[in-house]
TrEMBL record:
Organism: Dactylosporangium aurantiacum
Transmembrane segments: 12-36, 57-78, 98-119, 128-147, 183-204, 211-228, 254-274, 281-304, 324-347
Domain of life of the organism encoding this protein: Bacteria
Lineage per the UniProt record: Bacteria, Bacillati, Actinomycetota, Actinomycetes, Micromonosporales
Keywords (A to Z) from UniProt: Membrane, Transmembrane, Transmembrane helix
Protein name per the record: Uncharacterized protein
Length: 357
């Protein structure tokens, strides 16, 4: 794809970095395996609180993450306008060697194998497989963040090149100019994030519930200021600028969104610590996150056009197009899926803990 296909120099650099990353992971794995073998720990030498065999839930999350990674390398990865269309990670390279796709394939496969191996016996293999798996996850995240940075640079170039030629409109138009991550990139990010979450939960037991709840509440809070369609390329005085407004700029019914998000985050964070009679009520309310989020979005829908147009006009912008793409839906869809699952999990584990003598 024009603008994203790597140059010959980039092909060489990415190839070298991919090889170096694989060697680093395998070298670390081999070194830790030799050290572990020399220690020859007795079966009873596992430290108190060491991870036991994981629940089926972590195995299920690993399978889901593996499926997401598989489709992430095959579904449309980026979309460009005007004229570029969509492209998968392989098609992104044009006529060049598919080094980014190979790095994604090798890194994703290695991460799935390492996490799957660790799931079989976290207490025994934790010190051997855990660090290489964590390193692989970091490398995969760097790859996906690097690709997002390349897409954003192309997005900027396309906006600066074509936006001055767009006729002024009364309202902000949908993304007809720019480059945007699509479902493939989103699935890749979610797959790596879920596998990283499995690693974190394995190595924070027996406090994995508190860690899961804290991470979920924290990510949910990050979505409080933002809604879909709040990010624009806009033209003012012949200069192309990126403009973003928060729900606090919109005001009015849009403020239902941060109120709902903060409330849901607080509910999930409180479930493990609430008394029994109140825990069930909080779990039921948090499990209905999809409905609460839908209510907040509906309340703000009409402002996403009229309110944004008013703000753009007040700031002197004559042309504006929305920065589109699937990445924005991470902030909306992920809490809607994650909150009910974590709420029910927190309730279930808290109830079992309370029943212990």
């Amino acid at each position: 794809m024009d603008g994203l296909a790597p140059s010959p120099a980039e092909v060489t650099v990415v190839t070298v970095l991919t090889g170096a990353g694989v060697l680093a992971v395998l070298g670390l794995l081999g070194t830790l395996a030799v050290l572990h073998r020399r220690r020859r720990p007795a079966p009873s030498a596992a430290p108190a609180g060491a991870p036991s065999r994981p629940t089926r839930g972590l195995a299920f999350v690993t399978v889901v993450a593996s499926v997401l990674l598989y489709f992430g390398g095959r579904l449309p990865f980026v979309d460009t306008h005007p004229g570029g269309g969509s492209a998968t990670l392989v098609e992104l390279h044009g006529m060049r060697a598919p080094v980014y796709w190979m790095a994604y394939l090798i890194g994703g496969g290695l991460l799935v194998v390492l996490v799957g191996t660790l799931l079989k016996s976290p207490a025994t293999l934790g010190r051997v497989v855990g660090p290489p798996a964590a390193l692989t996850a970091v490398l995969m995240l760097l790859l996906l963040v690097g690709l997002k940075a390349r897409i954003d640079r192309l997005d900027t170039r396309l906006a600066e090149r074509h936006l001055p030629g767009v006729a002024p409109t009364a309202e902000a138009s949908d993304g007809s100019v720019g480059a945007y991550p699509q479902a493939g990139w989103v699935m890749g990010v979610l797959g790596v994030a879920l596998l990283t979450l499995v690693l974190v939960l394995l190595f924070t037991r027996p406090h994995d519930l508190e860690v899961l709840v804290a991470l979920t509440a924290g990510f949910t809070m990050l979505t409080a200021p933002t809604l879909i369609d709040d990010d624009f390329w806009a033209l003012r005085g012949g200069t192309v600028q990126r403009v973003r407004y928060s729900v606090f700029d919109l005001g009015g019914p849009a403020l239902v969104w941060p109120a709902v998000i903060v409330g849901l985050a607080a509910l999930v964070a409180a479930i493990p610590f609430l008394p029994k009679w109140l825990r069930g009520v909080a779990t039921f309310a948090a499990a209905a996150a999809v409905g609460w989020i839908a209510l907040a979005v509906v309340a703000a829908t009409h402002l996403l056009d009229t309110g944004m147009t008013r703000l753009l006009e007040a700031d002197g912008y004559t042309v504006a197009v929305r920065r589109g793409g699937a990445a924005a839906f991470l902030y909306l869809v992920t809490p809607a899926i994650l909150l009910p699952i974590v709420a029910v999990r927190a309730w279930s584990v808290s109830r079992r803990r309370a029943a212990r003598p």
